[in-house]
């Protein structure tokens, strides 16, 4: 059961041109001319055996699948591989499809944002082919088509966003691009697994303006913080003055502490302490 489920996932039912029942019935038969050519080809293979094995045996790697066209029609069973398979020379044409995840860079796109700012944005897209038959029959070049669609989708998505949204909401923009690309490439047998916005380049004048704005905002915050500090320091000094005013001994201790600090910092200075009683006499004496 597990191997059958894996095979169904690797080769899901075809959609698009091959989904019409009438066309599938037509692809089962090659007609009289095709049968004659097939008989002649098998006769030639048996006549040149074993040298014909070099042209009839093909090998497909684990990460590859091969779509076989016999006289322009896809053989029943869908894509072949991995391993060995048999083809008929001169009648079969093979197309190998790589199922590994492919990564490509979307070239930088000049985008005019919603607020009329021109920015250059590039991205990275990860995708893989999940249905080789559809990828070969429904689109001429799945890789090139996916690359072109990714570039146009990037411009369309960013054109609906403001500059601030582009700079701050990269993850949501990436998810939006992935969903749009996945829906558009599903008929091609392509699964877009991940999209990442890699870089956003702003004009030089805009960078300078944003730097000046950020610097002015930082200076404003610094002034506000300094003013708040001055306010808190003033309140603390007022509370300390109230405490000292209530106790004369506290003023005496503060006076002695100040003298000790001055004498420790300037050793060459001789300090003569003045009694606070004399200062108190002058402080309470009314002016003349």
TrEMBL record:
User: Which family is annotated?
Assistant: Belongs to the band 7/mec-2 family.
Q: Which Gene3D superfamilies match?
A: 6.10.250.2090, Band 7 domain
* Region: Disordered, residue numbers: 1-25
Q: Where would you say this protein principally sits, based on its record? A: membrane
Question: Which domain of life does the protein's organism represent?
Answer: Eukaryota
A cellular component term from Gene Ontology for this protein is:
plasma membrane
Return the PANTHER family for the record. AT06885P-RELATED, BAND 7 PROTEIN-RELATED
User: Could you tell me what this protein is called?
Assistant: Band 7 domain-containing protein
Q: Which UniProt keywords apply?
A: Membrane, Transmembrane, Transmembrane helix
SMART domains of this UniProt entry?
PHB (SM00244)
- The Band domain, residue ranges: 55-214
Q: What sections of the protein cross the membrane?
A: 32-53
Name the Pfam families for this protein.
Band_7
This protein's record includes keyword Membrane: yes
Q: Where in the cell is it found?
A: Membrane
């Amino acid at each position: 059961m597990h191997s059958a489920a894996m095979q169904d996932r690797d080769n899901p039912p075809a959609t698009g041109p091959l989904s019409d029942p009438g066309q599938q019935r037509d692809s089962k038969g090659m007609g009289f001319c095709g049968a004659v050519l097939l008989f002649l080809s098998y006769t030639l293979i048996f006549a040149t055996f074993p040298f014909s094995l070099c042209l009839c045996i093909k090998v497909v790697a684990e990460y590859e699948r091969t779509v076989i066209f016999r006289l322009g029609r896809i053989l029943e069973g869908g894509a072949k591989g991995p391993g060995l398979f048999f083809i008929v020379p001169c009648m079969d044409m093979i197309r190998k499809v790589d199922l590994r995840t492919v990564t490509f860079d979307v070239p930088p796109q000049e985008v005019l944002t919603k607020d009329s700012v021109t920015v250059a944005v590039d991205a990275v897209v990860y995708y893989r082919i999940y249905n080789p038959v559809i990828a070969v029959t429904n689109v001429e070049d799945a890789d090139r088509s996916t690359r072109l669609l990714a570039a146009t989708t990037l411009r369309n998505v960013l054109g609906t966003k403001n500059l601030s949204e582009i700079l701050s909401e990269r993850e949501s923009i990436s998810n939006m691009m992935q969903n749009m690309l996945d829906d558009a490439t599903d008929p091609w047998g392509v699964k877009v697994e991940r999209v990442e916005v890699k870089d956003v380049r702003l004009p030089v004048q805009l960078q300078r303006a944003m730097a000046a704005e950020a610097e002015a905002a930082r200076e404003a915050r610094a002034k506000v913080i300094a003013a708040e500090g001055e306010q808190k320091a003033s309140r603390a000094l007022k509370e300390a003055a109230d405490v000292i005013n209530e106790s004369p001994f506290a003023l005496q201790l503060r006076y002695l502490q100040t003298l000790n600090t001055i004498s420790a910092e300037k050793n060459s200075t001789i300090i003569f302490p003045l009694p606070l009683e004399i200062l108190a006499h002058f402080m309470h004496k009314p002016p003349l």
